[in-house]
Specification:
The protein has 12 helices and 11 strands. About 30% of the residues are buried.
Length: about 350
């Protein structure tokens, strides 16, 4: 490792078709800011774009080649994990060799992931003066990436866990706010799988996609907030993550069969009640998997999520495609928590 590169952030500009390589020992961290490039190593070519973070083992070679369409700009610094031995505990030291081996093929953390976003936020606050504060901030950037890898290594070393159990464990630990505010890529990182695989698992256990489940939870939250007669519809839309009032109205009407304004109007002598015909023909997508806490007759009361029977395929919110549902009580505690906060609409 070049001494001048150790924990020193340097900005690199590559014109189209120019190449950059990082030689020496240790790890190289690349934080892409603008433009596009490919990391070439043997027969492998990994695309790198704005917001991505690339980490590679310098001893294995490889180079970044800027693509057409403008300059590829990035910040880069070097780090030798062996220099951090005093910072690691015994468990982390036992995983360190395995983690450094993972970087021999280079790893790209996509811009949508929480780890990449955190790395760029930390890098934005780094001063140009190469002092102790500069190096400390770069250590924090490296710690973000290494923490992700340590967590993955611990999970793999803890023994084989069925995917369903792993999904359930992670899902139960997520707060409603984390589910609503995390991107699909961010959630996939939390579950330790790709975005495509996470959607497959959600279709298998929920009967809907990740995005559809998030949309349902946002709309259920909106229903709860609309019960406050003083809450303005536009403020409810913003609090539930809708940037445009028109989009909120359209999604709400498609889900419940009526607009937010009509929904909140008291009907009948009891007030605050809506005719069941106004709910809409689509119905609750969580009913299909037995996850809706309000499924059941009024006399018998809603069955618990553990007792939910196997359902037939229904049409999900995700594009209206039929989803095969296996009737597994996946995520039941999370849905009970949602029910306890009265986020689910009256069906």
């Amino acid at each position: 490792m070049a001494a001048q590169d150790h924990l020193t952030l340097r900005t690199v500009h590559l014109r189209p078709h120019e190449e950059w390589s990082s030689e020496g020992q240790g790890l190289a961290f690349v934080l892409a800011t603008t433009g596009h490039a490919k990391h070439l190593q043997g027969k492998m070519a990994q695309p790198v774009g704005p917001g991505d973070v690339l980490v590679l083992d310098r001893a294995c070679g490889g180079k970044l080649a800027a693509q057409e369409g403008g300059e590829f700009c990035f910040g880069s610094f070097g780090l030798n994990p062996e220099h951090l031995f005093p910072l690691f505990d015994s468990a982390e030291l036992s995983f360190l060799q395995k983690i450094t081996d993972n970087f021999k093929g280079a790893r790209v953390y996509p811009a949508q992931s929480e780890s990449a976003r955190e790395c760029h936020q930390l890098a934005d606050g780094i001063t140009t003066q190469h002092d102790l504060g500069h190096r400390s901030q770069l250590l924090r950037v490296a710690a973000v990436i290494l923490s992700v890898e340590f967590k993955q290594a611990r999970r793999q070393s803890s023994g084989y866990v069925r995917m369903e159990e792993h999904m359930l464990q992670v899902f139960e630990q997520l707060s409603t706010s984390e589910i609503l505010n995390s991107s699909v890529c961010g959630l996939a990182e939390k579950f330790g799988c790709s975005r495509r695989h996470l959607n497959r698992l959600f279709h298998q256990h929920f009967g809907i996609s990740v995005a559809a489940l998030k949309m349902e939870m946002r709309l259920l939250k909106a229903v709860s907030l609309l019960r406050n007669p003083d809450a303005k519809v536009i403020h409810v839309a913003q609090e539930c993550g809708f940037n445009h009032l028109g989009l909120f109205n359209a999604c709400f009407k498609r889900r419940f069969g009526t607009s937010p304004g009509v929904w909140r109007k008291p009907l009948g002598p009891s007030g605050g009640q809506l005719d069941g015909s106004m709910i809409g023909s689509l119905g609750c997508p969580l009913r299909v998997t037995g996850l809706c806490p309000h499924v059941g007759s009024a006399d018998a009361g809603p069955p618990t999520l553990l007792e939910a029977p196997q359902r037939q395929p229904d049409r999900s919110l995700a594009g209206g495609h039929a989803a095969e549902v296996r009737g597994k009580p996946f995520g039941r505690d999370r849905m009970k928590a949602i029910a306890s906060h009265d986020l689910c609409a009256r069906h």
